[in-house]
Amino acid sequence: MGRISDNLGTIVISLILAAVVALVIVKMVRDKMKGKSSCGCGCSNCAMRGSCHAETGRSKKGEK
After folding, report:
1. For the chain, which end, N or C, has fewer CB atoms within 10 Å of the first or last residue's CB respectively?
2. Taking every pair of C-alpha atoms in the chain, what is the biggest distance, in angstroms?
3. Which of 10, 42, 3 has its CA nearest to residue 53?
4. pLDDT tens string 16-62
5. How far apart are CA 62 and CA 49, in angstroms?
6. pTM of the model
7. How many angstroms separate the CA atoms of 42 and 49, rounded?
Protein backbone atom coordinates (compact mmCIF):
# COMPACT_ATOMS: atom_id res chain seq x y z
CA MET A 1 0.00 0.00 0.00
CA GLY A 2 2.97 2.30 0.53
CA ARG A 3 3.87 2.39 -3.18
CA ILE A 4 0.41 3.54 -4.22
CA SER A 5 0.11 6.24 -1.60
CA ASP A 6 3.64 7.47 -2.31
CA ASN A 7 2.86 7.81 -6.02
CA LEU A 8 -0.78 8.89 -5.84
CA GLY A 9 -0.12 12.27 -7.45
CA THR A 10 1.68 10.68 -10.39
CA ILE A 11 -1.06 8.11 -10.83
CA VAL A 12 -3.84 10.73 -10.83
CA ILE A 13 -2.03 13.00 -13.31
CA SER A 14 -1.28 10.02 -15.57
CA LEU A 15 -4.94 8.98 -15.56
CA ILE A 16 -6.05 12.53 -16.38
CA LEU A 17 -3.55 12.76 -19.25
CA ALA A 18 -4.61 9.36 -20.59
CA ALA A 19 -8.26 10.48 -20.54
CA VAL A 20 -7.43 13.70 -22.41
CA VAL A 21 -5.47 11.79 -25.05
CA ALA A 22 -8.34 9.32 -25.47
CA LEU A 23 -10.84 12.17 -25.92
CA VAL A 24 -8.63 13.82 -28.54
CA ILE A 25 -8.34 10.56 -30.47
CA VAL A 26 -12.12 10.00 -30.32
CA LYS A 27 -12.70 13.56 -31.61
CA MET A 28 -10.24 13.06 -34.47
CA VAL A 29 -11.88 9.76 -35.47
CA ARG A 30 -15.36 11.32 -35.42
CA ASP A 31 -14.18 14.29 -37.48
CA LYS A 32 -12.51 11.94 -39.98
CA MET A 33 -15.74 9.96 -40.31
CA LYS A 34 -17.64 13.22 -40.98
CA GLY A 35 -15.10 14.20 -43.65
CA LYS A 36 -13.71 17.16 -41.74
CA SER A 37 -10.11 18.23 -42.10
CA SER A 38 -7.80 17.47 -39.19
CA CYS A 39 -5.41 20.34 -39.83
CA GLY A 40 -7.81 22.97 -38.48
CA CYS A 41 -7.44 25.45 -41.31
CA GLY A 42 -9.20 25.94 -44.60
CA CYS A 43 -7.94 24.09 -47.64
CA SER A 44 -8.17 27.07 -50.00
CA ASN A 45 -4.74 28.46 -49.07
CA CYS A 46 -3.00 25.18 -48.27
CA ALA A 47 -0.05 24.14 -50.42
CA MET A 48 -1.01 20.46 -50.04
CA ARG A 49 -4.72 20.86 -50.86
CA GLY A 50 -4.44 18.73 -54.00
CA SER A 51 -2.98 15.72 -52.25
CA CYS A 52 -4.80 15.97 -48.95
CA HIS A 53 -8.39 15.47 -50.12
CA ALA A 54 -9.87 13.97 -53.23
CA GLU A 55 -11.50 16.59 -55.39
CA THR A 56 -15.24 16.06 -55.63
CA GLY A 57 -17.54 17.88 -57.97
CA ARG A 58 -14.76 20.00 -59.48
CA SER A 59 -12.64 19.32 -62.49
CA LYS A 60 -9.01 18.61 -61.84
CA LYS A 61 -6.28 20.96 -62.98
CA GLY A 62 -5.82 20.77 -66.74
CA GLU A 63 -9.13 18.98 -67.40
CA LYS A 64 -12.16 20.63 -68.95
Report:
1. C
2. 73
3. 42
4. 999 999 999 999 899 888 877 666 666 677 777 677 655 555 544 54
5. 16
6. 0.57
7. 9
